[in-house]
Amino acid sequence: MDIVRVQEWTIDVEDARAAIHDAGAGGEALFVGTVRNSFEGRTSLGLFYESYQDLAEKEMRRIAQELRREFGILRLVMIHRVGELAVGEAAVLVAVSAAHRGQAFAACQAGIDRVKERVPIWKKERWAEGEASWHHDPASSSGTRL
C-alpha cells in the first residue's frame, strides 16, 4: 500500500525507508528535499508551505499510480510538508522500491519532478532581512508555481 500525503508534522525519513522495504526489491531509492539557508544570494531563515490539501493529495495519488505503471514499483512513499519549516528540515520526500535498481532510481526522480511540477503547494521564503515573499519555483515547467 502506498503512503501518499500532505502533512504538517515532521517527515520521518527512517519510517519512510522502512515502509518501502520489500524482500522482492533489488533497489530502493529515496529523495529528501530539505530547506536550505539561502536562495539566489539571499539568506533564508526558513519556509512556509501552503496547499489545498485534498487537491494536492489527489494529484500525488495520480502521480503514484503513474509511477507504478511506468516503473514497476513495489512500494512507494510520497510526503510533502506544509506549514512553517526551519532550515535543515525535510520538506518533501519520495521513496520507492522496485525489482531493479534502475527502475527505483528512475521512478524516484520522475516522482519528485512530477510533484514539483504538478502538485498545488505554494512556498513563501522567510528572509533574514525581516520580510517574507512568495516566489516562483524554477523547477516548475508551468511558470506559475510559487
Descriptive tags:
single chain; 146 residues; alpha+beta; five-stranded antiparallel sheet; four-stranded mixed sheet; 31% helix; elongated
Structural features, described:
This protein is α+β, with helices and mostly antiparallel strands and 146 residues long. 31% of the residues lie in helices and 39% in strands. It has 3 helices and 9 strands. It has helices at 13-20, 53-71, 101-118, and strands spanning 3-7, 27-34, 38-39, 42-51, 73-81, 83-86, 90-98, 121-127, 132-134. The strands form 2 sheets. Strands 3, 4, 6, 8 and 9 form a 5-stranded antiparallel β-sheet that branches. Strands 1-5-7-2 form a 4-stranded mixed β-sheet, sandwiched between helices. A hairpin with a 2-residue loop joins strand 3 and strand 4. Helix 2 packs antiparallel against helix 3. It starts with a strand and ends in a 12-residue tail after the last strand. Residues 140-146 have low confidence and may be disordered.
